[in-house]
Amino acid sequence: MTATSTKPLSELLAQTEFSDDDIVRLLGLTDPEECEALRQRAFDVTTEKTGNNVYLRGLIEVSNICTANCRYCGIRKDNHTVERYTLTEESIVACALHALHEGYGSIAIQAGERRDPKWIAWISRLLERIHKETVCEELPTGLGVTLSLGEQTYEVYKEWAEASGNPTGLRYLLRIESSNPRLFAELHSTPGKHEKILEHRYQALRDLRRAGYQVGTGVMIGLPGQTLEDLMRDIRTFGEMGADMIGMGPYITSNGADMTALGMMEKRPLMQLALNMISTTRLVMPDINIAAATALETLEPNGRVRGIRHGCNVIMPNITPQTTRASYQLYDNKAGTEVGPESNVLVERNIVEMTGRTLGLNLLGSSRRWAARTA
Ligand code: SF4
């Protein structure tokens, strides 16, 4: 157990380097005035290091078919109550063009994990087509693309990177979910074809970087059995792997998952812990992109507004066709399943402007950390 730091909070927040004790203390803040001081500092550091824009990633959930069985996940393979779908190439390209015309700048392509050759080749074709159809005057390299398609081999990552045709707007999100090996093993303990091993996840993240991606990772916050020290080590792990972006959110149970009986934290303290985690990560890694997860909105109306106020600078509105959104429930009551794609930009503009930020339209919005390390 780490002894938490006792220095004045104002002194701690003015630092640019943080000890493990400092991080644990910031994560555990509960006093409203102290939480507000942390939030304000994180917001100011975000402004100073990444600017005033909040960037858009139009999220397209292209398929909920998955070969894995992560115990926390509502669309895991063994949940037979989910209606499975894969969008057509045409409808995905239509979503991408919608995003382009609305000024999104980037899209995120998410699906369950598949590693069969047919799937790999289909994704490659899709990426080639999206690139070809979205190069334009505003975006000379086409839409930025973030892939979230699970653990693959280096060769597959490389193939998709080349197919995307856009080395400056290419990202991959692969969350580690927890850097605590015991917790990771508990989350992924269901035996199966694509068994999950933490070291494999780290290798995949190294492979992504080698293949030229801006690399994103993240964890779940408030997992059963997780401690503040675990979350502190998660932040240290983000730093050690040199993550360019972070996507993380509160752990919310799902009826279709295998660990629902373990319960979840109460909503209010869970929200505060998630916000403290965002702000503390921002202080420790000032120039990365941090996404305001949809799970924040599921936990509390305007959750993403709070996320932006606490240090997030990316939002990922769901632009998946309405008909399939309800089938992509990684956790219960996921927010955004009712909002039509046509209303997204107005909704998002309102959300962003409530925070004093501006919506970064027609911009790739790449991570400054990535730009600095590749300059
Ligand atoms: S978290 Fe991802 S890989 Fe795991 S079961 Fe869910 S969709 Fe599949």
UniProtKB/TrEMBL annotation:
<feature type="domain" description="Radical SAM core">
    <location>
        <begin position="52"/>
        <end position="289"/>
    </location>
</feature>
<dbReference type="InterPro" id="IPR007197">
    <property type="entry name" value="rSAM"/>
</dbReference>
<keyword id="KW-0411">Iron-sulfur</keyword>
<dbReference type="Pfam" id="PF04055">
    <property type="entry name" value="Radical_SAM"/>
</dbReference>
<dbReference type="GO" id="GO:0046872">
    <property type="term" value="F:metal ion binding"/>
</dbReference>
<dbReference type="InterPro" id="IPR013785">
    <property type="entry name" value="Aldolase_TIM"/>
</dbReference>
<keyword id="KW-0479">Metal-binding</keyword>
<keyword id="KW-0408">Iron</keyword>
<dbReference type="InterPro" id="IPR034422">
    <property type="entry name" value="HydE/PylB-like"/>
</dbReference>
<feature type="binding site">
    <location>
        <position position="66"/>
    </location>
    <ligand>
        <name>[4Fe-4S] cluster</name>
    </ligand>
</feature>
<dbReference type="GO" id="GO:0051539">
    <property type="term" value="F:4 iron, 4 sulfur cluster binding"/>
</dbReference>
<keyword id="KW-0004">4Fe-4S</keyword>
<dbReference type="GO" id="GO:0016740">
    <property type="term" value="F:transferase activity"/>
</dbReference>
<dbReference type="InterPro" id="IPR058240">
    <property type="entry name" value="rSAM_sf"/>
</dbReference>
<feature type="binding site">
    <location>
        <position position="73"/>
    </location>
    <ligand>
        <name>[4Fe-4S] cluster</name>
    </ligand>
</feature>
<protein>
    <submittedName>
        <fullName>[FeFe] hydrogenase H-cluster radical SAM maturase HydE</fullName>
    </submittedName>
</protein>
<dbReference type="InterPro" id="IPR024021">
    <property type="entry name" value="FeFe-hyd_HydE_rSAM"/>
</dbReference>
<dbReference type="InterPro" id="IPR006638">
    <property type="entry name" value="Elp3/MiaA/NifB-like_rSAM"/>
</dbReference>
<keyword id="KW-0949">S-adenosyl-L-methionine</keyword>
<feature type="binding site">
    <location>
        <position position="70"/>
    </location>
    <ligand>
        <name>[4Fe-4S] cluster</name>
    </ligand>
</feature>
